[in-house]
């Protein structure tokens, strides 16, 4: 497992496996958000397997599938709602963690200073400078 915090209440990770979920709960997380569509890659566990493990570990799970390169208003709203509604701290995962970080960046833009977003995302190993530049140009 590769847990990368972006804030005290939110972290991202590359793909997790059902057998990782107990350790995620032991690490103090209360919820998991899956941002991968099922069947995106051969060998990836479907969300049902992660959900079953989460239920056994006492964690809430929300599936907010984000298709890479297909982010629209509905996806942003669903991600934001999950962040607001899930018990914190939340661990979000996708294939590499980049998609989750990108979504977090979009949601946080305008809520927190861009410099703080960049510090958090770069500290987790993700470069969101280009995305923040695009968001700033859009107003």
Automatic annotation (TrEMBL):
InterPro entries: BLH_phosphatase-like, Prot-tyrosine_phosphatase-like
This protein's name: TIGR01244 family phosphatase
Entries under Gene3D superfamilies matching the protein: Protein tyrosine phosphatase superfamily (3.90.190.10)
One of the record's GO molecular function terms: hydrolase activity
Domain Beta-lactamase hydrolase-like protein phosphatase-like: 2-109
Lineage of the organism: Bacteria, Pseudomonadati, Pseudomonadota, Alphaproteobacteria, Rhodobacterales
């Amino acid at each position: 497992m590769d847990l990368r915090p972006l804030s005290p209440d939110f972290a991202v990770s590359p793909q997790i496996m059902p057998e990782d979920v107990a350790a995620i709960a032991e690490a103090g997380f209360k919820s998991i958000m899956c941002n991968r569509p099922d069947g995106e890659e051969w060998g990836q566990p479907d969300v049902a397997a992660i959900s079953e493990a989460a239920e056994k570990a006492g964690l809430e799970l929300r599936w907010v599938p984000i298709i890479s390169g297909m982010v629209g208003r509905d996806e942003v709203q669903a991600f934001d709602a999950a962040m607001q509604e899930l018990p914190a701290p939340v661990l979000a995962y996708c294939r590499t963690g980049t998609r989750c970080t990108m979504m977090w960046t979009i949601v946080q833009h305008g809520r927190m200073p861009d410099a703080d977003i960049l510090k958090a995302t770069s500290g987790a190993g993700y470069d969101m400078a280009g995305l923040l530049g695009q968001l700033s140009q859009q107003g």
